[in-house]
Amino acid sequence: MGFELYMPTRIVFGADALDTLSARSLPGKKAMIVTTGGRSVFRNGAYDKTVEQLRAAGVESALFNRVEANPLKSTVMAGAAFAKQEGCDFILALGGGSVMDAAKAMAFMATNPGDLWDYIAGGSGKGMPMQQKPLPLVCITTTAGTGSEADQWGVISHDERNEKIGFGGWDELFPTLSIVDPALMTTVPPAFTAYQGFDALFHSTECYISNQHSLLSDMYALTAIENVARYLPRAVKDGNDMEAREHVAFANTLSGIVMTVCSTTAEHSIEHAMSAFHHDLPHGAGLIMISRAFYTYFIERHACDDRFIKMARAMGMPEASRPEDFITALVNLQKACGVDGLKMSDYGFTPEEFGAIADNARETMGGLFLANPCELPKEGCVEILEKSYR
Predict the structure, then answer these.
(1) What percentage of the chain's residues is helix, strand, coil (to nearest 5)?
(2) What is the pLDDT along the chain (390 residues), one digit of tens a residue?
(3) How many angstroms separate the CA atoms of 258 and 202, rounded?
């Protein structure tokens, strides 16, 4: 029954919510707008609308548009230096999970000395404590995938090492304000809509089977699972289906909240190791590739049979009575979203790497292994990768 909830972020949810930004309490007078090197937020008008809203609120802005799909440490350090150079007093993340993750790290390094990896706990990181309070952060999410608008964590990759590690955990890294506007998500391509939606799904399925779960996390997780399963295929099929976009965005925000009161499991550790070795692998795609084997591992060991049955029911199988029914529901959802044919080999993976990837997962994000519903040794990780490979 025990849990601890601290959610200091004001979340403004709904179609056209960005139009209310100027009326909100903003944490400074000059924002560094962080986005990717792509053109999506410029083509769909999100950037212009954001700048317009900031001006209406009397806030200046400077643009930093260099974030990668898997954000790099060097980019974080460049962004932090840019914020100091431009005299920005808060960070505004405009984009998806990679942008929000990078923006949190930039906000931290704009005020703290040294290198980002000095503060990373895991791998070659030094695990130093925070020395100065980060710059405040505002998030405007343009995708429904990571739930980063609702938590105090990000994931950053090291440029020179095969390390992709979660960064954060400090209360000061919660956004002060997050705008979740599903109207900004209508231009996300079908494949990435699916990848992002499955990332949100797995945040919640992992937290639901996690040994850290509580009544509170269960409530958030099951609601998110139900909404993704019901509406993601529609959002993939028709990006302008606003009802579908709204429900998937809602599920995504819930998946972010559930991670603040619970913990994901080693599925995320394994995928982060995978994309540390192959940076062009979209996070959600990697999770999809290993998901069937990952959950089957725990089902075969009867780690939490009742929880898999309840998730299957939430995913549209009301008569589910066996834990294996969850795998059926999962595979059916992947087929409905057109992502059941993803291949690790298409991204350059070879079976010879699996031992190193398994070691990397445990060395860089070993903490998530402690949340698994039963033990998952290195041999189990290799088995999951082998069964997932094609």
Answers:
(1) 55, 10, 35
(2) 788 999 999 999 999 999 999 999 999 999 999 999 999 999 999 999 999 999 999 999 999 999 999 999 999 999 999 999 999 999 999 999 999 999 999 999 999 999 999 999 999 999 999 999 999 999 999 999 999 999 999 999 999 999 999 999 999 999 999 999 999 999 999 999 999 999 999 999 999 999 999 999 999 999 999 999 999 999 999 999 999 999 999 999 999 999 999 999 999 999 999 999 999 999 999 999 999 999 999 999 999 999 999 999 999 999 999 999 999 999 999 999 999 999 999 999 999 999 999 999 999 999 999 999 999 999 999 999 999 999
(3) 11
Closest of 144, 127, 137, 179 to residue 32, by C-alpha = 137
Instruction: Report the residue count for the chain.
Output: 390
**Exposed e or buried b for every residue in 47-56, given b needs 16+ CB within 10 A?**
bebbbebbee
Q: Which residues contact 375 (CB under 8 A, 6 or more apart)?
A: none
CB 299 within 8 A of CB 308: yes
